[in-house]
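Shipment paperwork, digital attachment
Item: protein structure file
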Amino acid sequence: MINDKTKVNDKIELIGFDKAIELVKEVSDNTLAKAPLIIRSYTKHLMASHGKFIRARSVIICAEDKDGFVNPNAVKIAAAIEILHLATLVHDDVIDNADLRRGEVTLQKKYGKRTAVICGDYLLCTALNLAASISDKKDYLDIDMPDYMGKVCLGELNQHVNNANINLSVYQYLKIISGKTAALFEASFHAGAVFSKSSKEECKRYKQLGYYIGMIFQLTDDCIDFEDTKESAKKPVQSDYEQGVITLPLIHALKNISSFNEKAINDGVSRAEINEAVKTSGGLTYTHMVVKKYYRKAEKIIHELDVLESKREKLMTVLKKASRM
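Attachment content:
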């Protein structure tokens, strides 16, 4: 199997896809497990539950070269992005006062908000240090991780500024999630493309693909708040509005049912009223339609890329997972 082999290129020993994925998890876990003693109990708590590694996996997929091999530096960047994502989740849980994440008690619930915020900050620094430790500094500069981290933070701030904004427009909302969610997916795809030695034009295509998939991921997650249970989602549901977060299904309902909009502004609305309004207005149908538009754009890019068929299939798998297809 090609994934069990290595290849030497420009004095760098490239590795197979499966090995690269295995190493990403190993580097990520080791980084958390070897944190300074004062914070180690918190990072070990976070290790108790793993996510789907969809962003890290995307880095490795995009990093595959024409023969299916991966630059080992991509492993460090993938692990860094996974830790960065973890940091954003820790901070999100503090903001949302969430008690459950990935089926486990959140850091802020178990140890307190102050501890969680500081731990999240530490993870952000750790992610940057890990990314900067790759052997080829030019690749690190080309990926521009700090810029993507800035976009994520600005997206989160933009969401906070618009907390409970009943008049939030579709355009404003899409701009918010393009930062807080899509930017990290874009970073993942861009990083992988850089390590695959893609041309500047090809890197742009990968970045666009990552952006589309990130938008799909968030919009699909918006629907989960209405469609899934706490048990199946492994996190709180039916809670976005209660946290002041206005998502696309609700925006659609507010724009299309004037009486509901007026009540939301003047008296406030209950969860039952929100669910009924979203159902009546077709808010979920509308959101799924927007997802399909991004899906078609992403699928088009995937089929236009000059890559191995096995790589194309992996990219399609990521796209389908993001949209829950």
